[in-house]
Amino acid sequence: MQTTHPLSPRQIVTEAVPSDERVWVPQAPNVWFRPLMLNTLNGQWCNLLRVRRAGILSRHRHPAPVHGFVLKGSWRYIEHDWIARAGDYVFEPPGETHTLMVDQDVDEMITFFNISGCMYYVDDQGRNTGYEDVFTKIDMCRAHYTGNGLGADYIDRFVR
Ligand code: FE
C-alpha cells in the first residue's frame, strides 16, 4: 500500500509570493498573476493577482463563486461601497457583474483569488469581450515560462 499520495509534493507552494520575478505571468501592462493551483478536474484555479497601476482593470462576472483574500494594498469594485484592504476576505457571488478598480494612492496590490468556472469579461453594455478559464490560464503560464527560462513544464507542478 502506498503511504505517500502521489500528489503530496504539490500540496504546498513555498514562496507563494515569489522572490523570482519570472514566476509572475504578465496579464496586462503592470498587471500580473502568479499561479498556485490549476484544477482541470473542476475548472477552478487559485492565483495571486498583482497590480501596480491605478484605474479600472476589468469589468467581468463569473458563473461560479470566487473567494478572495487581500495580501497587500487595496482595491474595490465600482458597484460596491466597500474597499478590500490587506487582511480582508471577499466573496463574489455567481452572476454578479463587477468592475475591478485600484485607487491612485495604491502603489501595489496583491490578492489571492480562488476562482471557479471562468472570468467572463464584458463591456459597458454587458457585451462579452472575452473570457479566461483554467485552460487559458495554463496556456498563458506555459507560454510565459517557456520564454523566460523556467521551462515549458514549470507550470505542471500547479496543475491537477
Ligand atoms: Fe470577479
3D architecture notes:
By secondary structure, the chain is mainly β. It has a single domain (28-158), classed as Jelly Rolls. It has 1 helix and 12 strands. The protein has one helix at 134-148; strands spanning 25-28, 31-39, 44-51, 55-61, 66-72, 74-77, 83-85, 89-92, 98-102, 109-116, 119-122, 128-132. The strands form 2 sheets. The chain has a 6-stranded antiparallel beta sheet, covered by helices on one side. Strands 7-6-9-4-11-12 form a 6-stranded antiparallel beta sheet. The longest helix has 15 residues, at 134-148. The protein is globular. The two termini are 22 Å apart. The model has no long low-confidence stretch (mean pLDDT 94). The structure holds fe (iii) ion.
Which molecules other than protein and nucleic acid are bound? fe (iii) ion
Radius of gyration: 16 Å
* Number of DSSP-assigned strands: 12
CATH superfamily: Jelly Rolls
Runs in which pLDDT lies below 50 for 5 or more consecutive residues are none
* Class from secondary-structure proportions: mainly beta
| Inertia-based shape | globular
Distance between the termini: 22 Å
From the 3D structure, determine the CATH topology. Jelly Rolls
Encode the helix/strand succession as letters.
EEEEEEEEEEEEH
What is the CATH-assigned architecture? Answer: Sandwich
Alpha plus pi helix count? 1
CATH class category name: Mainly Beta
Mean pLDDT across every amino acid position = 94
Helix content, binned percent: under 10%
**Tally of structural domains:** 1
Q: How many strands, what sense, and barrel or not for the largest sheet? A: 6 strands, antiparallel
The percent range for strand residues is: 35-45%
| Main sheet strand line-up | 1-2-3-10-5-8
